[in-house]
Amino acid sequence: MNQAYFILSALLLCAGYTICLAIYRLCLHPLAKFPGPKMAALTKWYEAYYDLIKSPGGQYMHEINRMHDIYGPIVRINPDELHIRDSMYVNTLYCNPAGGKRNKYPPAAHMTGTPEGIFGTVNHDVHRKRRSAISPLFSKSTVTAVESKIQQKVRTLCDTLRSQIVHHGWAELRLNLLAYATDTVCEHSFTNLRLDLLTSDRRARQWRDSIHAIAILTPWIKQFPWVLPIALKLPLSPLYALVPVVARVVELRRAMDKHASEAVRGSFDLAQKSQDSKAQDLFNSILTSTAIAPSDKHPLRIAQDGFVIIVAAGETTARMLTTATFHILENKRTILPRLMQELESVMPVPGAAAELAKLEKLPWLSAIIKESLRLTGLVTSRLPLVSPDQPLTYRDWVIPAGTPVSMTLRDVLLDPKIFDDPCEFRPQRWLDPTPDMEHAYVAFGRGSRMCVGMNFALAELYHCLAYLLRNMDLELYETVRERDIDIVRDCFIGEVSPSSVGVRVALKSSRTAAAGSESALE
């Protein structure tokens, strides 16, 4: 009797709480007046269903666009958050420090499982200090000084592609470009950490699997942020047996924790290294920075910065390069002749590299890179920020201070009101861009939270595309845009169809020779 009474009381209490919460969220909440579906206003399980259950996962980005089609440019997408689809508002929300403070919304900031890294830092002022500690490593002058390292990695990439094409008849571009981008940023950012993915197909595939695991986990961590902290405390063996996807991420995090601990313990001479710009690395940049307090230099915190840099910088650059190469090869007749003329003007001898400053002055190459970045629209997840002190206004709407407000940068980059045929690859649009096009070019974000590694990523893009296309006559091999290139799901970074086999390329000369041999046999 007592047990039944207790269960009934608990059920009634839960029902009463749920009813009261529903009434509050629908009628009394500060966002109750904003348009949007009632189910989204009631519970975050609405979002969880689209991102975790609805096949193939990561579908809430499409549902948000459907909401906008019905309710207009400002929509309440969950009980606490508003989303705006209006490209002209991007500078207001993602403003520079002079435009106001912008904190991150914790559930979004912590989706990568790095709450103390620069990506996961919520507070505006703390983020500014942490960012300033690592920004010298990715400044324009620093990137120019390490050009030769980038060029050498590109040569190794080309050697790897040739070898794979000779052995298999084709090479998978995304796998190899991930190896290139990761090896490059790893050598630049870490003194004592080398992955050497380009020289080992096995290591490259293992790393790709780890990155894929992070992509799969990200929507889950966003909905259940307590999962990864618990997993980080568990032994690896049972994790690999039960949840290998989680185990790969945990192993990578622990490796970065180890390298950060060695840096803090002084396993290399910080005093000497800080005077030698050529020996500068990420951990040294943080540990010798005067912008942050000593309490902000403990191993577990700086390891999170290292984890974000090596994972994000490698995958995003690789995806941008993959998309660019695909569209160039798919449109060879219209794109390549003019591009080859430009490349031959600064790289007259095959095998020679050109300085970044010269490559950046090539208008057609620059237009191709800019259009590739726009069309990739890689960050599919919305990026909510909070104005902690001042209310925001959008048209006739007054948004209360402290409200998470988000936009999706991919929507801005593909805005049909600004870009004609936005899903078509048209580099010529950047030869004479309109002011609205420049305003909507948010490939690296905007404001105080924009990508800290933009200069380094652009250097990788310029050097890789220029050398690769100047020295290898590539063609696409059994690659389908809808399956292997187009983004269909949101894993923070947009992902292609689960059925994708990658972006495959072959050498035109080898394919022609193979076809000739087959004809001769016939």
From TrEMBL:
| InterPro entries xrefs | Cyt_P450, Cyt_P450_CS, Cyt_P450_E_grp-I, Cyt_P450_sf, Cytochrome_P450_monoxygenase
UniProt-recorded name of the protein? Cytochrome P450
Q: Which PANTHER family does the UniProt entry name for this protein?
A: CYTOCHROME P450, N-ACETYLTRYPTOPHAN 6-HYDROXYLASE IVOC-RELATED
Q: Which PROSITE patterns match?
A: CYTOCHROME_P450 (PS00086)
UniProt keyword list: Heme, Iron, Metal-binding, Monooxygenase, Oxidoreductase
Q: By its UniProt entry, which SUPFAM superfamilies does this protein fall under?
A: Cytochrome P450
Q: What does the similarity note say?
A: Belongs to the cytochrome P450 family.
For molecular function, the Gene Ontology terms on record are: heme binding; iron ion binding; monooxygenase activity; oxidoreductase activity, acting on paired donors, with incorporation or reduction of molecular oxygen
Which cofactor(s) are needed, names only?
A: heme
Q: Which CDD domains match?
A: CYP58-like (cd11062)
- Binding, heme: C451
**What is the top-level taxon of the source organism?**
Eukaryota
Its organism's taxonomic lineage begins at: Eukaryota, Fungi, Dikarya, Ascomycota, Pezizomycotina
